[in-house]
Amino acid sequence: MLISTTSTIDGRSIAAYHGVVFGETIIGANIFKDFFAGIRDIVGGRSGSYETVLKEARQTALEEMSQQASALGANAIIGVDFDYETLGQANGMIMVIASGTAVTYR
Length: 106
Prior knowledge:
Blueprint: E1 2-3, E2 14-28, H1 31-43, H2 48-71, E3 76-87, E4 93-105
Parallel strand pairs: 1-3
Antiparallel strand pairs: 2-4, 3-4
């Protein structure tokens, strides 16, 4: 599945539009990740544990969106966008939503 954030792909023409597709995932961050991320906030630096969780969530959302597009007969998704939200008590969950337009390219 070809996936792009742009509305077209150079050298290809769109044969059919199949509509908007979504991939959503919600991942909880556990207490140990929260604790070590808090320490990082105090001393500075990147939070590798949260970055890993975000990468997993983003990949899962992309895979779900690709499966939905494939079921519609598409071979590409264009105009892909990601949205991120924190949910739950004390923002303990991260939601990632990927959306785009499923198309068939020639």
